[in-house]
Design goal:
alpha/beta, globular, 6-stranded mixed sheet
């Protein structure tokens, strides 16, 4: 009697997006969370683009940046799936394991199309339809909103050192998250506190997901 080959179980990828005004520790938090969960994170494409092309960007440049951001995210997701294939469905190092014996793979994403929408509208007063369409189609599992309660750090790519503008942008992001359906959590304080709050939010998100499975 021939045995059927074992099926490789592709684990679910939960996507956590970190958003907020500039210089609020988004990239740092992504990096710390990815290290904690032994996974990868998707960097912000805008930094690479502006470093290569200069900071005198146009409205059309923001569409290019949005497309580049989505490509980076696709590559990150493929990287996680390829790791699963190589291991053949066994537990990945650092995978988040729960009482249901399921394994959840996590992808942390620095910036999404909401950020691109705010950027377009704040600077140019309008947004590309492509970005609006992607907001409707894309699905994420958790948002972490970084509060601007840490000092603004000077950077050649950063535009808004003024505290009033940072707070204004924070409230724009907060209003967006309030009016959408994905769970979100505000993170604040120093980097250790932000990491602890992020881990707590991720653990609750994964636990709730398993309970609804």
């Amino acid at each position: 009697m021939n045995k059927k080959p074992a099926k490789c179980c592709m684990q679910e990828i939960k996507k956590v997006v970190i958003i907020g005004p500039e210089s609020t520790g988004k990239s740092t938090l992504c990096s710390l969370l990815a290290a904690h969960y032994h996974t990868i994170w998707c960097k912000e494409y805008a930094r690479e683009y502006l470093l290569n092309n200069g900071t005198d960007y146009t409205f059309e440049d923001l569409l290019t940046i949005a497309r580049g951001q989505l490509l980076l995210q696709d590559e990150a997701e493929k990287s996680i799936k390829n790791r699963q294939k190589v291991i053949g469905g066994s537990e990945l190092p650092g995978a988040t394991v729960h009482h249901t014996s399921s394994i959840t793979q996590l992808l942390f994403i620095d910036t999404d199309m909401y950020v691109m929408k705010v950027w377009c509208e704040y600077v140019f007063g309008k947004c590309h339809q492509f970005i609006l369409d992607e907001i409707v189609q894309l699905h994420y599992d958790l948002y972490l909103l970084c509060k601007p309660d840490i000092a603004w750090v000077k950077d050649e790519l950063r535009e808004y050192p003024d505290e009033k503008v940072r707070i204004e942008l924070y409230h724009i992001y907060r209003d967006i998250l309030i009016n959408q359906n994905v769970p979100w959590v505000e993170v604040c304080g120093g980097y250790e506190q932000r990491l602890a709050m992020g881990i707590d939010a991720v653990e609750r998100m994964v636990s709730n997901s398993n309970q609804n499975y």
